[in-house]
């Protein structure tokens, strides 16, 4: 089923494309005469969603509780947890490594709540780089804070904004394998990370690794679509992961619109019964 054919007749005038929320950075930013803290996201992320058939909505860090997260997610059909700075290691019970970024605790809290509320309602979810790490931490897992200490080289993060290409081996029975039609050959992907998943969080399975054992993708086992990759699919001309998310989001939207129609009809029946 394509994203443009969600399987139900949309309301007259309604756009059938699913709405995908993407979390954003909050960093000191310069533009013109301004040098201020700002929410932003590289265009490649939301361009990928749009090209895959979705409508992109940006979700900047903000104070959050379960009710706020639910209100935000009510307007979405899918969610992308994007890349960025390192997650605060206090969230998984560790002191900070000397190479770990200064924490962005507001973003950590925002994404943590969005992830949990999205899983509870089975909202389609895609994590990218930091997003994979955040999903793992939200599920009780841990990270390697500095990969060169583990693998003995810095090949996963070249520095200077340059993405290295590494080969990942995708598990043949995984959802990821089906989305990528990965066959049995290594898949070249762009990476830019100095941390990686260590202990796997609850409800997650590993679906890709590099030759040295570094986890490159995890999947939620008990939801229709919950996938996170350590690499950056927005950095190359391959929309398969975004298309998979958008298609899952279209199905999610169609299902929930159908449920709301039944609820609406039931309410009308009850009103008639009381007349």
Task: Describe the secondary structure blueprint for this structure.
Elements: E1 19-23, E2 25-31, E3 34-40, H1 43-51, E4 55-59, H2 66-74, E5 78-81, H3 105-120, E6 125-128, H4 130-138, E7 143-144, H5 148-151, E8 164-170, H6 175-180, E9 187-191, E10 196-197, E11 204-209, E12 215-220, E13 226-229, H7 240-274
Parallel strand pairs: 1-4, 1-5, 5-6, 6-13
Antiparallel strand pairs: 2-3, 7-10, 8-9, 8-11, 11-12, 12-13
Helix pairs in contact: 2-3, 3-4
Mean pLDDT value? 91
Give the low-confidence spans.
1-10
Number of strands: 13
* Basic shape: globular
Structural class: alpha/beta
- Our count of helices gives 7
Percent helix: 25-40%
The main pleated sheet reads as: 9 strands, mixed
Order of helices and strands: EEEHEHEHEHEHEHEEEEEH
Spatial ordering of strands, largest sheet: 4-1-5-6-13-12-11-8-9
Radius of gyration: 20 Å
Beta percentage is: 15-25%
Alpha-carbon distance between the two ends: 43 Å
Task: Please provide a written account of the structure.
With 275 residues, the chain is an alpha/beta fold. The chain is 32% helix and 23% strand. The protein is built from seven helices and 13 strands. The strands form three sheets. The protein has a nine-stranded mixed sheet with strand order 4-1-5-6-13-12-11-8-9, with helices on both faces. Strands 2-3 form a two-stranded antiparallel sheet. A two-stranded antiparallel ribbon has the order 7-10.
């Amino acid at each position: 089923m394509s994203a443009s054919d969600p399987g139900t007749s949309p309301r007259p005038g309604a756009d059938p494309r699913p709405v995908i929320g993407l979390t954003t950075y909050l960093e000191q930013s310069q533009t013109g005469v301004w040098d201020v803290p700002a929410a932003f996201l590289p265009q490649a992320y939301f361009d990928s969603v749009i090209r895959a058939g979705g409508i992109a909505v940006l979700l900047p860090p903000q104070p959050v509780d379960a009710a706020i997260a639910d209100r935000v997610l009510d307007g979405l059909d899918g969610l992308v947890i994007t890349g960025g700075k390192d997650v605060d290691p206090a969230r998984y019970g560790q002191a900070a490594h000397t190479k770990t970024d200064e924490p962005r605790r507001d973003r950590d809290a925002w994404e943590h709540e969005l992830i949990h509320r999205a899983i509870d309602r089975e909202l389609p979810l895609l994590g990218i780089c930091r997003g994979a790490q955040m999903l793992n931490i939200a599920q009780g897992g841990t990270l390697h804070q500095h990969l060169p200490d583990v693998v003995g080289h810095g090949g996963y993060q070249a520095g200077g904004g340059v993405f290295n290409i590494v080969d990942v081996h995708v598990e043949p029975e995984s959802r990821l394998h089906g989305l990528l039609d990965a066959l049995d050959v290594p898949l070249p992907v762009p990476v830019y990370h100095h941390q990686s998943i260590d202990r796997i969080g609850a409800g997650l399975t590993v679906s890709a690794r590099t030759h040295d054992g570094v986890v490159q993708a995890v999947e939620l086992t008990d939801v229709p679509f919950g996938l996170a990759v350590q690499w950056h699919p927005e950095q190359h001309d391959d929309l398969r992961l975004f298309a998979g998310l958008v298609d899952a989001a279209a199905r999610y939207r169609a299902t929930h619109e159908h449920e709301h129609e039944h609820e609406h009809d039931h309410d009308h029946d009850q009103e008639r019964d009381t007349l």
